[in-house]
Amino acid sequence: MNQKGQILSILGNVVEVEFYDGNLFLGEILVLEDDPEVKLEVVSAIKKEVFLCFSLTKSENLYRGAKLKKTSQTLKIPVGQMLLGRVINVFGHPIDNLPQFEIKEKRAIYQHSPVYPETILKKELIETGIKVIDFFAPLMKGGKLGIFGGAGLGKTVLLSELMHNVVFQERGIVVFAGIGERIREGYELYETLKRTNVLPSTVLVFGQMNETAAIRFKVGLSAATIAEYFRDIQKKDTIFFIDNVYRFLQAGNELSTLLMNIPSEGGYQATLDSEIGALQERLVSTKKASITSIQAVYVPADDITDPGVQAVIPYFDSMVIFSRDIYQEGRYPAIDILASSSSVTTPVILGEEHYQILLEAKRILERYKELQRIVSIVGEAELLMEDRIIYHRARKILNFMTQDLFVLTKQTGKPGKYVGREKTVRGIRKILEGELDRLPDEALLGIGDLPR
Known about the structure:
With 452 residues, the chain is an alpha/beta fold. The chain has three domains: 4-73, Beta Barrel (Elongation Factor Tu (Ef-tu), domain 3), CATH 2.40.30; 77-345, P-loop containing nucleotide triphosphate hydrolases (Rossmann fold), CATH 3.40.50.300; 350-444, Orthogonal Bundle (Bovine Mitochondrial F1-ATPase, ATP Synthase Beta Chain, Chain D, domain3), CATH 1.10.1140. It has 13 helices and 18 strands. The strands form four sheets. An eight-stranded mixed beta sheet has the order 8-14-13-15-16-12-17-18, sandwiched between helices. Strand 3 and strand 4 form a beta hairpin. The longest helix has 27 residues, at 352-378. The chain is elongated, with a radius of gyration of 25 Å. The termini are far apart.
């Protein structure tokens, strides 16, 4: 059997190759005969001997007529304890200017999701120390939290704070997938994790925006493979972070366009749902250990109804949605509380006290939205006394949900604050019961816990 072929044509990242009796399969890695570091991945067959491939390395090393060899393998990545504290690329090569680590085991980045009888859902909350999340959109162990927002609203900052807080509380393994974000952001995250001593228990996998679409698309799958190893082989609870899921979908769209596939009505690739499902359905908890996933989702043009964003939403148990209006008001984190939600807000999981206070707080905030329109037209003096009380209690709740973050201490000069869920519930109860009615609303901005 002929194990060699050649390149017929090169169009950007798409390479047309010819193999006679090669029996290539989708996802197989091909390498240049004279340079095995140059890799191509088979993505489709045009006819019996002609295939389309994506270049996984720089296309400048390719040329027509170049000889290729089969590997009979899909893309694999190193897994194991030696990755902790390191930054790697989609191939598992270190990119942190530190010495090469010893590779003991590799796993293919394409894996099946666990079968349904093996999956479990623990009814156990993870405390994040961030008031607005713990109270209004709590995160469950083994669940998924989505952080939605447009450009520049603070998604990455909140994600970094969650990494800092959750790692110290849970003491688990952290796997971070940086998909299509800026190199500067990746460097800042690395330095933040190093400064806050989170890095030693973290694996960072990066495919930044300067990489090809094929690399950016596979970063999430590579990181998921590492997380699965810690869950299934090491049997350790793992916390999986992605920044940014939308860039994963966007990379898939670019690849679909390069292959000249017909897009769906919304302009995205026809395989959008299957691609996001192939990633998300692997990030689940099994009887061996859990994977808790926290993911940032870029919202293009602040349009939450965008088809790409809507394709991701069903996979999340909890969602926090950033608002540009709230950001411009100066309340940080700039989260729209009423738009945010969680499927775990039940009395069984939260406890009766938290659940009842949550319902009352949301009722007051809903009424506040109506009163805001009246105040903007005729002024607060025209409100009934009862409505005026509700108006100010709602403002106190909104201000109480603001918080100084540990990861911003260096920039703001203000020390970060960790507030436990019970303290947050107690603080909201005091506001609702009128204990703080005499205080000005602004007194609760940026504070941590309320004094007893």
